[in-house]
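The material for today's practical consists of a large collection of protein records. Read left to right, the backbone structure tokens trace the chain's path through space. An example says more than a description, so a record of this kind follows:
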Amino acid sequence: MSGTHSVLAHVQEADNAPVNTTFLNDVLRGLSQPQKSLSSKYFYDEAGDHLFQRIMRCDDYYLTRCEMEVFREKANELVSELNIDGAGFDLVELGAGDGIKTRHLLRYLSEANADFRYLPVDISGHILDVLCAGIQQNISGIDIHPFEGDYFAALGEIDRFSQRRKVVLFLGSNIGNMPVEDCHTFCLRLGEHMHPGDLLITGFDLKKDPRTILKAYDDSDGLTREFNLNLLRRINGELGADLRLENFEHFQTYNPVSGACQSYLISQKNQTVSIAGRSISFEKHEPVFMEVSRKFSLTEVDDLAVTTGFSPVKHCLDSKGWFVNAVWMKN
């Protein structure tokens, strides 16, 4: 579960309410395709942020606990390739969220008197405010410079802001929220903003019992269902649509061969909705693709590094072997 962001362009509706035309165009384009889809990057409004924080605390959603264990127990291993007694560096976190896992690493670096700045990047200005407040309350003396927006636009700003060496964090198995081709392209583009010797620490959810994976995305509390439906609420609220949430139901699949765990909203009836004055028809049982959360083997993790200009350095796994934070070095 992750997101990117574009600079807002606005048009005026009849009631003078601003409409994000990028959001509108993406929604209309996605729902006009033979296979309807909505971009998961729009999950994260304020309500979506709160729901995802609840998901991360949910008993069925093991990913956060596994990665938290790695950061809590193995912070020294994660940065052992970086000479923290040497020149200063920037710790850049893409899709930082509320930073609750990263606090363990920040505390370790702070106590080691490392010369670093923390540069969190997120689509959501609200969650960045939460992150900064949480860190300032829990760890003193951290130099924080948040960047709101699209990953690569923010990395461009960071390149202009600082030429120090980078340690880039991309956590939470966010890299699994992309199709295979996009994942490869993303790593190549990320490498364009890094210099030889810079480190990338990436979270990968590993292949395991399919029932464990499926339950994480179809939790007994119904939080993932609400998270998906909240995007329809956002479309109604921001784009003046008349989607009826009771006419859609969350459905989850997992393919243990490809590792693709896919979320859908299924139309429960034949229906026609209006979005910004445009009619969109749904057939009964028609699926709307919402998100993919891909799972990996350790071999696939290393292969991705090698084919995108990085060298695998190490695997830091949780005690169950369910999740890995892979450390790569830019060639």
Observations:
- The longest helix spans residues 223-239.
- The chain has a mean pLDDT of 90.
